[in-house]
Design brief:
The complex is a heterodimer of chains A (about 450) and B (about 190). Chain A has helices spanning about 1-20, 25-35, 40-60, 60-75, 85-90, 90-105, 115, 130-135, 295-300, 300-310, 315-335, 340-345, 350-355, 365-380, 385-390, 395-410, 430-445, and strands at about 125, 145-150, 150-155, 160-165, 170, 175-180, 185-190, 195, 200-205, 210-215, 215-220, 230-235, 235-240, 245-250, 255-260, 260-265, 270-275, 280-285, 285-290. In chain A, helix 14 (about 365-380) runs parallel beside helix 16 (about 395-410). Chain A has 17 helices and 19 strands. Chain A is α+β, with helices and mostly antiparallel strands. In chain A, a hairpin with a 2-residue loop joins strand 16 and strand 17 (about 270-275). The longest helix of chain A is centred in the last third of the chain and has 21 residues, at about 315-335. Chain B has about 190 residues and is mainly α. Chain B folds into two domains: about 1-110, Rna Polymerase Sigma Factor, Chain: A, CATH 1.10.1740; about 120-190, Arc Repressor Mutant, subunit A, CATH 1.10.10.10. Chain B is built from ten helices and no strands. The longest helix of chain B is centred in the C-terminal third of the chain and has 25 residues, at about 160-185. Helix content of chain B is about 75%, strand content about 0%. The chains are: A alpha+beta (about 450), B mainly alpha (about 190). Chains A and B meet through helix 1, helix 3, helix 4, strand 17 and strand 19 of A and helix 2, helix 3, helix 4, helix 7 and helix 8 of B.
Chain lengths: ~450, ~190
């Protein structure tokens, strides 16, 4: 009996190998002969097959998670894709109406946010000379003050006296900077990163890309560099490669809100990742709580106040407009019937596309795909570039809708019919996707503005 | 397709998108390694992401680009050990990681919807049984089903021969079959 089992178990490795497409040609005949004679091994063969198909099904969500991890890291290290659609959407003719809409969305007052509910009154608006605003600080400086709404003070290394910082003034490493009541300011780091300080905030500039938040609140847009960007608060260090986040200190610790990208919080409690759309409470060097924040624009509303006070448009405001478009797209999808959206016409396309591309749409796959379908039906020439980028979407249905819309708008399909874009894994679509990107380089001008 | 080593050299030469390609390529295997170490899908995703980012930050310390995969899996394994140690040291270092449910709720989009829709009970039980296998067996299953690897490729990641991969997979399948049969008898 035991001898028979031992030899049967040898055949199990062949059964396994056959299942995995790894059976050596010389073993095939021996396996088939044994299976013909041994009922026990036939039952093992059948069980392994069933198990294999069960495992394949069980791993479908896991494989998607793996793809999401890969894409997340790739997005964190690759240069950010610049999206231009909102600008087209804010075409001059629509600017007045859209401006009102944006202002409404930016300043809509949330009931609960106590601090944000009363944006500080702006005492005075100063602006830096254009050349200072446009350029990062010189490498020897940690940062340069580019915009203030009142008096900002600094404490130079080795000095005991706080002195005012002029707009355009540079901040050396080792300097502490503070804002008083109702004063907000913007700094441009030596690496090109943006830093915004809320009122009653104090920050120590250790060196380029390294800061201590002693009190108050700071927002950042971190420029991608090899060296991590570090902010210390509440006994922990927040590290980011290229991302946007906001940190607010309070009596019991710090609250980190990540708007885009990924941060790592390291302290005595270990290392934790905090992603876009998440808010983490950091107490005594450890992440105590993590929650999802859907309305990031409201969550970091103090920054809107500062950005909107600037006399010129800051790219950060553009990013926030993208976020608002996504919210508008979501609202349309949730509150209007399909026919109603279709009746509204092409003005819905940018909000819907922004919604599809934002994290807002992640939890609801069907709604997301429907949004892509409607956007595809309504899209006009100015949306071609965004539709091309959607050909790389993780959802097969979104890709198909994008490809259908592209064929309608350009008369091209780059040798791949819309339904073929459903093919998985995505790599099968890569050659056609690359052809679309190359095509866009040639034709961008023809499609850059609305009809 | 460019080799891993070529992509490493491109990334070091100032083309970050080459590392993006490596991250996409290796994410399933790194996640498989992490999942087999910590036995929780959600926590494994965090750790895989961390390992891939650590890999990017430390790419210059990789002496032999040909060994990128093994080096990266080593980083992943260390990240998991750190996490397991931290988890053992503090009671609840991070409340949301304490249950699988919490993690899934925290990262919408990683799952396609309510678990009940996508994953019927049978399929979920199968995944739990895999997580309960001894490490060397669950690791080979994870590598195989997270990523379609050949025995040769899996052997490279595991540092064993292709014949050992075949033997471990067979043993893992036999153990799974036995456990599922036992469960079926217990809960007919």
């Amino acid at each position: 009996m035991s001898e028979r089992n031992a030899s049967c178990e040898d055949f199990w490795t062949l059964i396994s190998a056959r299942l995995d497409g790894e059976l050596a040609p010389g073993d095939r005949q021996a396996l088939e002969a044994h299976l013909a004679a041994c009922a026990a091994c036939r039952s093992v063969d059948e069980a392994f097959r069933l198990q294999d198909s069960g495992l394949r099904r069980a791993f479908v969500p896991r494989r998607k998670a793996a793809a999401a991890v890969g894409e997340g890291v790739a997005a964190a290290v690759e240069a950010p894709r610049r999206r231009a659609a909102w600008r087209a959407w804010l075409a001059p003719a629509a600017a007045a109406a859209a401006g009102f809409l944006v202002a409404w969305a930016l300043f809509r007052s949330p009931e609960q946010a106590a601090r944000q509910a009363a944006p500080p009154k702006v005492a005075q608006v100063e602006r830096a000379p254009r050349e200072l605003r446009a350029q990062p600080a010189a490498p020897a400086d940690a940062a340069r003050l580019t915009f203030v709404t009142g008096k900002v003070e600094m404490l130079l290394p080795g000095s005991a006296d706080w002195v005012p910082v002029p707009t355009g003034g540079s901040i050396e490493p080792g300097t502490r900077v503070r804002t008083g009541p109702e004063v907000l300011c913007e700094l441009r780091g030596a690496d090109g990163s943006d830093l915004w300080l809320n009122e009653r905030t104090e920050v120590a500039f250790r060196q380029a890309r390294s800061f201590d938040l002693a009190r108050g609140q700071m927002g950042t847009r971190v420029e991608r560099r090899e060296a991590p960007f570090l902010v210390s608060a509440a006994g922990a260090t927040i590290a980011a490669v290229g991302t946007r986040f906001d940190v607010e200190t309070g009596p019991s610790g710090a609250v980190l809100t990540v708007i885009e990208g990924l941060t790592q919080v390291t302290g005595t409690g270990g290392a934790f990742l905090v992603r876009a759309g998440e808010r983490a409470t950091i107490v005594e060097g450890a992440v105590r709580e993590k929650e999802l924040v859907w309305n990031l624009l409201q969550a970091t509303r103090w920054l809107n106040v500062l950005l909107a006070r600037r006399p010129d448009a800051h790219p950060e405001l553009a990013r926030r407009v993208d976020g608002i478009l996504a919210l508008l797209g979501e609202a349309k999808m949730q509150e209007l019937a399909e026919e109603e959206i279709l009746e509204l016409g092409e003005s819905c396309v940018s909000p819907l596309l922004s919604y599809v591309q934002s994290s807002l749409s992640r939890p609801n796959r069907k709604l997301r795909e429907k949004a892509a379908e409607i956007a595809g039906r309504l899209a006009v020439r100015q949306h071609v570039h965004e539709l091309i980028l959607l050909l790389a979407d993780e959802s097969a249905a979104v890709r198909e809708h994008a490809a259908g819309a592209l064929r309608r708008l350009t008369g091209e399909d780059q040798g791949r019919a819309p339904r073929d874009w459903r093919q998985e894994p995505w790599d099968a679509n890569r050659p056609a996707f690359d052809r679309w990107l190359a095509w866009w380089k040639e034709h961008a001008k023809e499609y850059s503005s609305g009809p | 397709m460019q080799s891993d080593a070529d992509l490493v050299r491109d990334a070091l030469g100032g083309r970050p998108s080459a590392y993006g390609e490596l991250a996409r390529r290796w994410a399933p295997r790194v996640l498989a390694v992490c999942h087999s170490k910590v036995r929780r899908g959600g926590a494994a995703e965090d750790l895989a992401q961390e390992a891939l980012l650590r890999g990017y930050a430390g790419l210059r310390t990789l002496s032999d680009p040909e060994r990128f995969g093994a080096w990266l899996c080593g980083i992943a394994a260390r990240a998991c050990l750190d996490w397991l140690k931290a988890k053992a040291r503090t009671e609840v270092p991070f409340s949301v990681l304490s249950t699988e449910e919490g993690v899934e709720g925290l990262f919408p989009g990683k799952d396609e919807g309510p678990r009940g829709v996508e994953q019927d009970d049978e399929v979920r039980r199968l995944l739990e049984e895999v997580e309960d296998l001894p490490e060397e067996y669950r690791k080979v299953i994870f590598l195989f089903y997270y990523d379609d690897m050949t025995y040769q490729e899996a052997a490279g990641v595991l540092g064993v021969s292709p014949a050992t991969v075949n033997a471990r997979l067979t043993k893992a399948r036999a153990m799974l079959r036995q456990r599922l049969l036992t469960n079926a008898r217990r809960h007919p």
